[in-house]
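User: Fold this, then the next.

Assistant: Folding the first:
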Amino acid sequence: MEEKQLQNQQPAPQKDLVRTHRIVFFALCIAFAVLAVLGIVLGTSKVQMCREMRFFSCDSRGFHLISCGVGTTKRTGGPIDVESLPTPDAALFSEAMVSDVDYYETGEIKEVPIFEQQRIDRYIFSMIIVVQNGSLESQDKQTDMIFLASFNQMLQKFTVVSVARDTLVPLSEDEWKRINTAYSRGGIGQLINTVNDVFELDIQNYIVTGTDELAALADEIGGIPARLTEEEAAYINAACGGSLKPQKQQLSGEEIITLLLDRTSDGKGDLGRADRQVGIVENAFWYMKDKFDSSFLYPFFKMIFKSIQTNVDFYTLREIGIEMSVAEDLTFSTIRVPFDDAYTELNVDGAYALLPAIEKNRILIRQALYGTRDIERDTSEPQTSARSWVLPVVLSAIAIAAVACIAVFAVRRGKKKPQGTEEA
C-alpha cells in the first residue's frame, strides 16, 4: 500500500514545473485573447470605414485605404547626371519648345514606376501634387499645376513650391523638355523621377486630381477666398460670365480654377501664374484651418479620397491633416520655381520657355523643403508603415502576459501555507 502511494506521488520540483507551465499557458491565453479583441475591433472599424467610403481596395482610379497607387521600384541605372550635360544650343531648345506633349506622336502613355530614393529627413513628409487639366477620367495627361509640398513635423512647418510648367528640364542625357512633358509622357512616375533627378529630392508620395474634381471640392466647402485685381476680375468675368469686383471675395469652384489657370491678366506669363497659384493655395489653407476644426477632417478626407489618385494611405493623410489643423505655431511657406534671378527666358518662334539655373534652383528648393542646414540623406531605418500599430500591440500583449504571470504567482504564494510543523 505504501509502495503504491509512493509511485503516485510526484517529486515536489516536478509539481512546481507543471504549475509553472500551467501559469504560463493561461497567461499566454490571456495575451492572445487581448490580441484577438484588438484585432476584431481594428478590423471592424476598418471595414466600417470602407463601407462609409464605398471602396475596399484599388480600382482603376486609385481609390484605396492602403498604399497601392503607382508602385516604386529600385533604379536599374543611374540618375541623369545634370552636371555633365552639354550646354544646350539653340537647335536643341527649338526642338524642346515645339511641343510639350510627346505621347501624341506614339499614341500611347507609359506609366513609369517611381524610383526608390533614400530619405533626406525622417521627420519631413514630402509629396508632389498634380492638378490634371480637365477630369481624372481623361486620358489627356496635360497639367498646368505642379506643386511640391513638405510638412516638417519637428518645426511644424508646411511648405508648398509651385513649379512653373514651362520650366525646361532634361528628360534624358540628350533631351530637354518642359517639365509637364514628363507627366504627359510617363505619368506621375516619370514626373517624380524627373523632379528627384534634377533637383536631388527624395519625393515618393503623390496626389493627383483634376480641375473638374478640384472645382467640385471648392464648391463643397463654400468656395475659396481670393483678393482679385481689376485685371483678374475682368479675366474671370469674361471666362465665367460673372460680375466680380476687384476686392477680396469668395470664389466658386469654376471661378477659382479659372484664376489658377490665368497666365495673361498680369502680363507675367507662366511665372505670374505660378506665383498666383501658391497665393491661392495659401489662402485656401488658412481658410480651411480657421473655418473647420479637427472633427471636420474625417468626412472632409473621405470626400477628398473620392476625388484623387494617390499612393498615400488614408490614415497617414488624415493624421497629417489633423496635426496641421491643431498645431498652434504652424508656419506656412510658399515659393515658386524657378526662383527669381535663377532662370533665362527663351522665345523661339513664339514658343515660350524658362531655362532654370539648375544648381541654384536645386539648392534653394532643398533649403525650402528640408531646411537651411547642411543636407545629408538620412541613413537610419525608414519610418514604419501604416501598420505601425502591430508592434506596440504585440509588446502590450507580452507585457500583459508578464503581468498575468506575476499576478498568478503572487496569488498562489499568498495562498500557500507557511512551512513548518503544526502537528502536535
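Now the next one, as you asked:
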Amino acid sequence: MTHIPVKKYRVRRARKWLKRKLIPFSVRAGKVSAKWAKPDRKRFPPRTQADVPGLGRYEYSWLSQNGEDGILRYLFDEIGFESRWFVEFGFGAAQCNALRLMLKEDFHGLLMDGSAENVDYFNYAAKQHGIDRITAVQAFITRGNLQSLIRDNGVPRDIDLLSLDVDGNDYWLWEALECISPRVVCIEYNAGIGPELALTVPYDDSFERYSKHPSGFYYGASLAALRSLGQRKGYYLIGCDSTGTNAFFLRDDVEIEGVTALTAREAFRPHANWLGRGISEADQLDIMRSMPYQEI
C-alpha cells in the first residue's frame, strides 16, 4: 500500500484563526478589494501558449486559481452571452471563477459558500467597488437545500455559467440540480482517480474533506463519473484545465466550431499539485483504491 501523505491542514487553520484575531477585518477585506482592482490581461489568447493543446491554450488566472479566467473568456467569446447570470458555489472572495464575469462582463449572479467570513469579505469588496448585482449567501449546501437557495435568490432558469467546487458532494449536487439550465458548467474533478474509473464519494449531508481523511485525497468524483452524469443531464465534456482540477462542459445545444465531445481519457489531465509533490499517478490511484469511494 502506498504511503498516504497528510497535509498540515490544522496548522493552516490555526494560522487563519490567528490572522483573524490579530488583523482587523477592514484590513483583511481591503486586501480582497485591492485584488479586484488589479489589471486584467489585455492580450488574449496568450501568445506563449499558442502550441498548447486543448483548453490549455487559453488559460490564465486573473482572479481565478487554475487558468479558468482564460478558459471561460475563450468559451464566451465563442458562444456569446445570453442571460449574463452565473451561479457559483464553493467560492473564494479573492479568487473564484465568476469574479471576472462579474467585474468585466456585467454579470448578475449568486455565490454560495459555507464560510460566513468569506461572504463578509465579498460583500465588503463589492460595496467598495459599487457592485450590487451579486448575492453572496453563507450556507452549507446539501441536496435538500440547494434548489431552494437558488430559487429564493431570484436566479432565472437559463443562466450562462454554473461553477461547482465544494470538495466533496460535487457529483451529487450537480445530479440534484434541476432548477437552472446553465450553458457552460465548470466542475472540479478528482484527478487522482484517473480517467477510467467512474467513482464518487458516497453522499453525506455533512461531508467535510479533511474531516473525512486528513490527507485531502478523499473527495469529489472522477472525471469519468462526471462525464457520465453530464451526458444524462444533456451536457458534453470539452476538456479540463492543465492542472487537473476542473472539467468543462457545454450544454448539448451550445456549439463551438472545432470543439467536440471528448471521452474522459481524451480530456483527462493529471493532478499537477500531487505530481509536483512526488506522488505519481499510479500512487495516487493506489491511494484512491484504498478509500471507500462509490462506483457509479
